[in-house]
Amino acid sequence: MIKNDSALSRVRIPYGAWGSSYFPAWQASPLAEVNIGQFAAEAMARILGKRKVPTSNLDYLVSGSTIPWHWKFWNSPLLSTCLGERTPGYHVEQACATGLQAIAVAASEVQCSCYDAVGVLTFDRTSDSSVGVFPERRTNQRTAVISDVWDNFGFDPATAGSMLVTAGLAARKYKLDRKEIDEITYCRYQQYFAAKDAGFLKRFIVPLEVLNAQGKVVGCLDSDAGVRQVTLESLRSMNEMDTCVTSGAQTHPSDGMATLLVTSVDKAAELSSKPEIEIRLMAKVDVRTSPGLMPEAPTMAVQKLLSQAGLTLNDIAVVKSHNPFSVNDAVFSKIMDYDWIKMNRTGCSLVWGHPQGPTLTRIVIEALEEAVELGGGYVVVMGCAAGDVGIAALFEVA
Predict the structure, then answer these.
(1) Contact, 211 vs 34, CB < 8 A?
(2) Pairing between strand 60-64 and 117-125?
(3) CB count, 10 Å around CB of 341?
(4) Sorting pLDDT into bands at 50, 70 and 90, what band is 32?
(5) Residue 36: is its pLDDT beyond 80?
(6) Which of 66, 67, 112, 342 is the most exposed place for a label (fewest CB within 10 A)?
(7) Cα–Cα distance measured from residue 138 to residue 165, given in angstroms and rounded to the nearest whole number
(8) Which one of 3.20.20.70, 3.30.70.20, 3.10.590.10, 3.40.47.10 gives the CATH number of domain 163-201+279-397?
């Protein structure tokens, strides 16, 4: 029995009441033609329909995204209307941690007995580099562009460095070996393709048609477009942009959505496609490390999480990370003395891309599916949230 076992005693995640789109590649996505929020909500309705979970079960909707989209002011209540229900809701935004924070917010709503079934809907479209426009009162201009979304990746106000620089800084701090980084990267691609060939992705990813404003089909999301075939030799031949950081050893921008339900115990038994499987969110923590050391922050979050739970990595069946850089996994392996081959055994965001909002939601779904395949156990999911923040969560599949 872990410490604080009853902290989220009312919360369950019904098996199978989840799903994701594929994540198409940056600048190659039919999603560039549509309102991503509306698409995501309609996709959620389609996914739940395929899972035989009526949207009428939803009491509340927690949405999450990081990039401006048309009608964003209305957020979750509008999205619930787009999926066919008129529920209240709340919107979450915390950089790359958004997808996991949305699940935690949904869990808190259930735990405090506010609702019995909360939908989580996360999405983003990074392909068209949206901008933030705000009032500018110091000039005769009515509005001014504050920043392009890509400026945020290139400039951390706390350090004036980029996300890429954080990876190089961590690589130097932990004296990482470029050879190992390339081996980790190659392993991650092999893991993804093995899971894909085995049909694992089809358990939770639903191919989705994309319609334009006129209702015309403009494409179909039927693959993680942007995933490339790599060899160890090609990775080793790439030039470093910073210490241990190459174009092959980092993720790529993408678009997509992911959704799941967080419910009470009784509602989970009703909505689960396998009621005999019980899935619990046990705990969630956030940490902040020194400025510009993002790749070590998720590891520190896991250390805190395991300490609070009274567990070690030997107790964990599935370890899954949002790894924008291979450096993240190398740092985790070194600090925790953990074999990185055991991580991300069914794929990861390093390979299939990073649309921000839904990234960690898809990772949670993948991790839970893997745990079910293994016959249950504890699951640890971790990720970063921009320059120096890490997040981690503990689940139990029984």
Answers:
(1) yes
(2) parallel
(3) 13
(4) confident
(5) yes
(6) 112
(7) 33
(8) 3.40.47.10
Picking from 209, 259, 219, 196, the residue whose alpha carbon sits closest to that of residue 20 is 259
User: CB within 8 A of 188, min separation 6: which ones?
Assistant: 323, 326, 329, 344, 347, 348, 350, 351
Query: What is the CA angle 97-125-49, rounded to 5?
Result: 85
One-character DSSP codes across 177-193 = -HHHHHHHHHHHHHHHH
Are the beta carbons of 164 and 242 closer than 8 angstroms?
yes
Q: Angle at the Cα of 368 (from 43 to 209), degrees rounded to 5? A: 20
Q: Residue ranges of the alpha helices (H) in the chain?
A: 36-50, 75-82, 98-111, 149-154, 163-173, 178-197, 232-236, 265-271, 297-309, 326-336, 349-352, 359-374
In the structure, what pLDDT confidence band is assigned to residue 224 with cuts at 50, 70 and 90? very high
> What DSSP string describes 1-61?
--TTTTTTTTEE--TT-EEE---PBTT--GGGGS-HHHHHHHHHHHHHHHTT--GGG-SEE
pLDDT digits (tens, 9 = 90+) for 242-282: 999 999 999 998 999 999 999 999 999 999 999 999 999 99
The model carries a pTM of 0.95
* pLDDT for position 96: 95
**Per-residue pLDDT, 257:** 97
Tell me: pLDDT of 295 over 80. Answer: yes
Closest to 113 in 3D by CA, of 277, 299, 265: 265
Structure tokens given for 46: 């389609």
Q: Does residue 139 have a pLDDT over 80?
A: no
pLDDT at 215: 81
- Work out the burial of residue 124: count CB atoms within 10 Å of its CB; fewer than 13 is exposed, 13-18 middle, 19 or more buried: buried
101 close to 322: Cβ distance less than 8 angstroms: no
- pLDDT: which is higher, 310 or 152: 310
Q: Could you give phi then psi for residue 128, rounded to 5 degrees?
A: -115, 15
Going by C-alpha positions, the residue among 142, 115, 128, 133 that lies closest to residue 72 is: 133
What kind and span of H or E run contains 201? none
Residue 94's contacts (CB-CB under 8 Å, 6 or more residues apart) are: 66, 101, 385
